[in-house]
Amino acid sequence: MAANPLNIIAIHPSSARNELVGSAQGLRDVWNSIEMVARTDSAVLIQGETGTGKELVAKAIHQESRRRHAPYVKVNCAAMPAGLLESELFGHERGAFTGALTQTTGRFQMAHTGTLFLDEIGDLPLELQPKLLRALQEQEFERLGSTRTIRVDVRIIAATNQNLLQMVEERRFRADLYYRLNVFPIDLPPLRERPEDIPLLVRHFVRGFASRMNRDISEVTEESMALLQQHDWPGNIRELQNFIERAVIKSSGRTLEFPCGELRRVVKCNTPVRNRTLAEAERDHILDVLRQVGGVVGGRHGAAARLGLARTTLIHRMRRLGITQEKAAAAGAGGDGWSSPASPAHTADAGLRNPLEPAWL
Hints:
Structural class: alpha/beta
CATH architecture of the largest domain: 3-Layer(aba) Sandwich
Shape: globular
Helix content: 40-55%
Number of domains: 3
Order of helices and strands: EHHEHEHEEHEHEEEHHEHHHHHHHH
Distance between the termini: 49 Å
Radius of gyration: 23 Å
Low-confidence stretches: 1-14, 265-277, 335-361
């Protein structure tokens, strides 16, 4: 039976690269990882908060790989009931269950010679995980209601916004499946860790939406840009994108206009903003956790696990906030690890500062 074309995505050669906008060190590290792993067939596990661009990274890996001209197929493991997910992944024969009127091709078979992207893999039901593990290891499976084994050649990329290692420890995710997926992990930084990329993202989104809506918007005030950089963006890039789309709709002139009241942080539009507040709060919280775990960063009982972060992500965040190894050790020993208030050097490390360049789009 022919594959449903809606299940297969054709990726323009430059689309994924064009959508990953930014120049911060965190994003450069992600691009380095993409370039390293793309030309292999190794499984990739992309981890990051909601809205950080996990699917864009998956598409970029496919586009940079030798499979770029083969199908790219995606499955959202959280978007359908457990009873239907097995059929969606592996297909079913006619009569396999009530309502199975025709033979159906599963996503694994659709992705043959290409890439299968398993989004929200942390929501995969426990009872389905052994069958997925076998399909990953053996590159073979059977449709529901069939005994015929189907062999495929599929590259697997999985993504999650959950802490899979913690789920393994809580027995909510199989350890063997986790290690099979976690061959090459890529951790995506949240937008609050790369505020220097916000002007680039704003320009990117404004140009796209203004062109689509036939608007002539070519500038944004420095005060507005500073306010955007101050917001912590819990929804990350997706939240910023939606916010800019609303702003473009509401703007009537050449300057981007947006309502300050929509931002969760209470900051007045026309009042100079302090850039240290969020950094100070984040720094204090990390130090407090380091005190609780005796200064240990990694491991099952370290600060990274307590904070729900990957060890490398926490180390990157500590460096950005000016938390050195000595300060972490001092916190673990019971000291506060630094002077208070924060020094100018720490403020600079935090990267939360107003853009000095003209804020033209």
